[in-house]
Amino acid sequence: MKEQYDVIVIGAGPAGYVAAIRCAQLGFKTACIDRWINKNKKPAPGGTCLNAGCIPSKALLESSSIYEHARLHVKSHGVQANDVQLDLKTMMSRKDKIVSELTMGISGLFKANKIDWLQGSGKLLSNKQVEFTEHGKKKPKITSAENIILATGSSSVEFSAAPLENNTIVDSSGALEFTSVPERLGIIGAGVIGLELGSVWRCLGSEVILLEAQDCFLNMADEQISKGALREFTRQGLDIRLGARVLSSDVSTKGKTSKVIVNYQQDNQSSSITVDKLIVAIGRKPNTENLFTKEIDLNLDNMGAVHVDDQCRTTIPGVYAIGDMVRGPMLAHKGSEEGIMVAELIAGQHAEVNYDTIPSVIYTHPEVAWAGKTEQALKTSGIEYRSGTFPFLASGRAKASGETTGMVKVLADATTDRVLGVHMIGQNCSELIGQAVIAMELGASSEDIALTMFAHPTLSEAFHEAALAVDKRAIHLPPPRKR
Ligand code: FAD
Ligand code: AMP
Predict the structure, then answer these.
(1) Which whole-number Å values give the CA distances from 255 to 179, 252, 276, 347, 389, in the listed order?
(2) Ligand 1 mean position to 238 CA, how many Å?
(3) Which residue, by CA, sits nearest to atom 41 of ligand 1?
(4) Which of 129, 204, 263, 286 could serve as 125's disulfide partner, Cβ 3.0–4.6 Å?
């Protein structure tokens, strides 16, 4: 007999599993199909984010930063830690344990919400039918549902000039599994993923060279912040080469040792580097190959993303698509919010996602975070604005913790004073940016933030002072110089 559901979700990443849970909360009979097999050869929900993205990378960023801190910085606190040793195996096991606990948590939530977790591949057929092929089985089953949510995520873009090779040329997943610290590490792409992975291995002792094709560093961030970030990452020792277009690579192996020669062009000159490992981090592409049969009329863009409207409806009634496989930034929280929106739309509720306030974070040390419009975008659109900045150097809490790099910047509409963008670099900015998102979501003005009381001493006071600085009245800064 054909299994009939109210909702079938294909993909159990942060977009799909959140959509499935919200559907179940709303009373729908829900199935979630997912094909992920983890390194223990077991099915694991959570998608890229839990298994090979957000979570394992943050576990390693934290551990590697603690190692660097213990080696270089605790002395200034009067703490002697003379024989700091790296135990990479334990660091990796800790990361694996965190991943395993969180993925098990999702399977527990599926069970508690009575969601059928179907372990294998899903394919969209016509007439709201889904073909499900269970892991290890050849013969597919046909299931159907009133509503289908596609949430198949994305995969690393492969690069013909540097094809993946065993343990030597790897993508981001491979870079989370190195068993020793590479002496010299090359990374193609100085985007968010390249920078985070570069930070991990630099903290653990690698010499890291990032080759970035664009001349501009982090062009999606506010220029003032990205300039500060480039300065700080370079000071820490990341060798970031901009305008460096990789042309080819060669792996040479002598005995058990392999090296990669990476050839690139910069300023019209050919150069090369020789590294022990190479990470390819040039972006991600939507997983839409073999996801539906030929007769299905879904529109894809040139990257393979499924075309959807503002509420994630595809061109087929009752079929939705969310997360990395559709337009917008490839971020876990963006996919999750889309999942909740779609579940509520299916239930006939009013639901929407505010795409103007999606927070972006780079989890390096210091962290870079922003939400809303950059100063350069406001200039391009001809919007009059006022800007206020406050450096962490003047924050008592930042001083106390010994991490004073960075600043907070608030951009507000010159006429209405409404906050249009908030940009930060500094410790814990991934947490601070949430305050900016709430302010923007509630339509706050910079004056609203200025009138709010913040605990002392906290890093949040820098957000308060930056809002005061919009009106040129920051307390802990000298008055702005008259021109
Ligand atoms: P995915 O998480 O990719 O999940 C899709 C799931 O669908 C997978 O399990 C896949 O196996 C399954 N699937 C695909 N096709 C089929 C099929 N036909 N049948 C059945 N199952 C299928 N984002 C952040 O917001 N914060 C971060 O800190 C962050 N760090 C990252 C670090 C790294 C190294 C990487 C690679 C990514 C990071 N991201 C981060 C991005 C984040 O992981 C993605 O935006 C997020 O996972 C997308 O969620 P999703 O549900 O759309 O897709
Ligand atoms: P992201 O989109 O944040 O994942 O970052 C990917 C980065 O890789 C972008 O900054 C791209 O400009 C960069 N990139 C893409 N192709 C190349 C290439 N051939 N050589 C060097 N960098 C590249």
Answers:
(1) 18, 10, 14, 62, 55
(2) 27
(3) 331
(4) 129
Q: Which of 57, 216, 282, 330 to mutate to test the pocket of ligand 2 (most atoms within 8 A of CB)?
A: 282
Active-site residue flag, 456: yes
Could you check whether the bond before residue 366 is cis, i.e. omega within 30 degrees of 0?
yes
Q: Which ligand is nearest to the CA of 248?
A: 2
Would you state the structure tokens that stand for residue 479, as one six-digit string?
């008055």
Residue 170 · residue 186 · CB < 8 Å = no
CA dist list (Å): 400 to 62, 167, 248, 322: 20, 42, 48, 43
Please report which ligand is nearest the Cα atom of 174: 1
| Residue ranges of the chain that CATH labels 3.50.50.60 | 3-156+285-353, 169-282
Which residue's CA lies nearest to atom 46 of ligand 1? 332
Q: Cβ contacts of residue 370 below 8 Å, gap of 6+?
A: 221, 222, 225, 359, 360, 421, 422, 423, 424, 433
| Ligand 1 close to Cβ of residue 280 (< 6 A) | no
**Class (C level, CATH) for 357-470:** alpha beta
Predicted confidence at residue 297, as pLDDT, reads 87
CATH 3.30.390.30 domain extents, the chain? 357-470
Q: Give me the CATH code for the 169-282 domain, please.
A: 3.50.50.60
* Spatial distance between the Cα atoms of 214 and 62, rounded to a whole number of angstroms: 29
The reported pLDDT for the residue numbered 166 is 86
Q: Which atom of ligand 2 is nearest to the CA of 283?
A: 4
Task: Pick out the chain residues at pLDDT < 50.
Answer: none
Please give the pLDDT value at position 442.
Answer: 98
Nearest of 472, 455, 364 to residue 410 by alpha carbon:
472
3-156+285-353 belongs to which CATH class? alpha beta
Distance in Å, CA 11 to ligand 1 centroid = 9
Q: How far apart are CA 231 and CA 208, in angstroms?
A: 15
Task: Judge if the beta carbon of residue 11 lies within 6 A of ligand 1.
Answer: yes
Catalytic residue among 135, 456, 464, 476: 456
Phi and psi at residue 218, to the nearest 5°: 45, 65
pLDDT of residue 480: 80
Among 104, 95, 121, which residue's Cα sits nearest to residue 36? Answer: 121
